[in-house]
Amino acid sequence: MPIAPAPARSGPWTAAAIPDQGGRLALVTGANSGLGLETARALAAHGATVVLACRSPQKAAAARAQLLADLAHQSVASPHGAIDCLSLDLADLASVAAAADTLAQRYGRLDLLINNAGVMAPPRTLTRDGFELQFGTNHLGHFALTQALLPLLKGQTDARVVSVTSGAQYFGRIDFDDLQGERRYDRWQAYGQSKLANVMFTLELQRRLDGANAGIRALAAHPGLARTSLQPSSVAANGSWFEPIAYRLMGPLFQSAAMGALPQLYAATAPEAAPAGHYGPDGFGGLGGWPRPVPVAAAALNTNNCQRLWQVSQELLAGCSAWPQVDCL
Ligand SMILES: NC(=O)c1ccc[n+]([C@@H]2O[C@H](COP(=O)([O-])OP(=O)(O)OC[C@H]3O[C@@H](n4cnc5c(N)ncnc54)[C@H](OP(=O)(O)O)[C@@H]3O)[C@@H](O)[C@H]2O)c1
């Protein structure tokens, strides 16, 4: 797959550098809030048709209305793209399958998939299919969605799959003996595991896409620390007295959601973003700043474990009656 050289740029990469997305179709999971909303906004502002894939139709409709109103007021050189909504609950594999079917019927193609939605550090909860919520939503739901959408991505020019990970990947560990936290559940370890899984999935996906000569790029990105609903939702779910105080003390470290969305926008649109590339902020500790290539967690470089995670994920889906057996790679 030809990768364009980086264009000469005097300053940092900003959303203004996004190439024209006219004619491209993008699906963003969790697009009603935070990084997903900002990603949808930037892609639509550059002409892409954006599908907001959300679990709440009401929130999706509100986000669509907000984006259309904002874009109408924004002075952009070319007309913005259309914005569509799609019902998708990543914690329910029947919903994932239905969303993929609906997208196939509506459009019959896809250029860009952004696996963005996520939950962080709730008490142990199960998805509808009985998987631990963070593993099930952040990893397995996106793993399933990507497989189901690959037929729509294949054959498209410059097709990409971008998975949104976190700095939590660096303390993550895949506990193959207790993936669902049945014996011992630590909600932060489970979050780190799911975010490390996002990266390992990306690297293994790229290997498999290359093996199949699919001409699709798989990339990952993390936002650093961005002010979104992630932390408030996490606190609301776990009832911690300590975490709200910690987040308040960390206040100055948070960047805006629009800044946090830049690494995934870079991965999604920069001509020079490389297959299996991983991007994050360039500032202190990777917490904030402008997008640049950053190393993945050392644990993700173990190819055997990446293959094992893929295999186990496939087996978990195969054991699930709600999942129509899709295996494209
Ligand atoms: N913000 C940060 O500092 C930070 C740092 C590192 C990584 N990240 C990653 O960034 C991504 C986006 O998070 P964010 O910060 O933008 O948080 P956010 O504002 O809370 O957005 C998360 C989105 O995911 C959706 N979602 C949650 N569970 C879902 C499910 N079962 N099915 C479909 N959608 C679901 C949420 O929907 P509802 O609105 O219906 O809940 C929401 O739209 C996540 O993957 C997160 O791990 C964020």
Question: How would you explain this protein's 3D organization?
Answer:
The structure is a single chain. The longest helix has 25 residues, at 187-211. The model has no long low-confidence stretch (mean pLDDT 95). 50% of the residues are buried. The chain has a single domain (20-318), classed as NAD(P)-binding Rossmann-like Domain (Rossmann fold). Helix 5 packs across helix 10 (303-318). The protein has helices at 34-45, 57-73, 93-106, 133-153, 187-211, 230-238, 242-249, 257-260, 262-269, 303-318; strands at 25-29, 49-54, 83-87, 112-115, 159-164, 216-221, 278-281, 291-293. It is built from ten helices and eight strands. Helix 4 links the parallel strand 4 and strand 5 (159-164). It has 329 residues and is an alpha/beta fold. Strands 3-2-1-4-5-6-7-8 form an eight-stranded mixed beta sheet, with helices on both faces. Bound molecules: NADP nicotinamide-adenine-dinucleotide phosphate. Residues 29-30, 32-36, 54-56, 59, 88-91, 116-120, 137, 164, 166, 222-223, 225-226, 228-230, 233, 260 line the site of NADP nicotinamide-adenine-dinucleotide phosphate (NAP).
Short description:
With 329 residues, this protein is α/β, with parallel strands linked by helices. It has helices at 34-45, 57-73, 93-106, 133-153, 187-211, 230-238, 242-249, 257-260, 262-269, 303-318, and strands at residues 25-29, 49-54, 83-87, 112-115, 159-164, 216-221, 278-281, 291-293. It has one domain: NAD(P)-binding Rossmann-like Domain (Rossmann fold).
